[in-house]
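Hi Q.,

Before the meeting this afternoon, I wanted you to have the flavin-adenine dinucleotide prediction in hand. No need to reply - just skim if you have a minute. The sequence and ligand are here:
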Amino acid sequence: MSAVVVFIDQTDVSGGAGDADALSKSNQELLTLARLAGEPVAAVAGEVSDGLAAALGEAGVARVFASNQEELTSYLVAPKADFLAQVATAAGASTVLVGNNSEGKEIAARVGIALDAGVISDAVGLTVADGVLSVQKSVLAGEYTVEASATTAIAVVAVKSNSVHAEPAAAPATAAVEPFTAEFGPASLGARIVERTPKPDTGRPELGDARIVVAGGRGVDGNFGPVEELADVLGAAIGASRAATDAGWIEHSAQVGQTGKTVSPQLYISVGISGAIQQKAGMQTSKVIVAVNKDAESPVFEIADFGIVGDLFEVLPQATAEIRRRRA
Ligand code: FAD
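Predicted structure with the ligand bound:
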């Protein structure tokens, strides 16, 4: 079986955010797909704790290449791409998988150039037939899916989170960790990180991993207070439409949609969002969609399982108060 190298970035986790002993949900999804395409191999930037090695073994990974070199955390993404490309060569990879976030897509492009490999982004699935890897790629804001195959010896694929259900391996492995020293050329060390400002901890779950998301749009008119209160009473993450992030009412990392995050929670509460095609692209696979909008003709009601036509500033506080009352 050919090696499928999955990039696992633990550099943030080593800095204190996240769980150093666990695989994130999106990394579990990448490894689930890697097992479909061949033999999963992990390329870990950062430390591999005993807990992480055990989690990798449960995901069917027997070989782990790990580097904790200072360049991986002190520069922008180029050294991570060098590390991943060099691991792919060392492992004899046929496929390289990365997350489809903005950093992952830049890494994919750089690895593609380094390995002279075809790059496929926005992937939502993989299949292998007669030894040929075929990638399902979401296009036109999720309205269409196309099949794509790399014509090169190696394929680099950036996979959207929440595209597959993460499963543990049917046959767990014992992960052997091999220290790896990557070489970094001067061009890769061209942009050094000079300062880091940690994101304040909101205590809310990660948007991509949350079971419940409450998302606000232009309708909140600059006031995310009612959205935050409902989110907190439900233990939910907060999302937003691009209109809300572009207005500066909430950080860009909260954006859901074609050019933001793809989420697939059990419950997505859409508040003051019209449901444009680019917003739908990031949330339409949610299990249950509840929409609150004062315009009964709003397109969001076409995809909502439950709709409330009303002013969010009246509806949300009532919902929050009622949930609190029932929980008490
Ligand atoms: P609007 O469309 O203005 O809708 C606001 C809604 O709030 C209306 O339906 C209104 O009835 C309702 N409302 C107003 N006041 C209240 C109130 N008091 N109570 C209840 N309801 C109220 N958008 C994204 O979201 N994510 C993306 O990733 C994204 N990517 C894009 C990529 C490209 C290339 C392009 C061209 C666009 C992209 N967009 C994206 C923008 C998208 O087309 C829409 O413009 C955007 O989603 C609109 O945001 P909205 O629904 O919050 O605002």
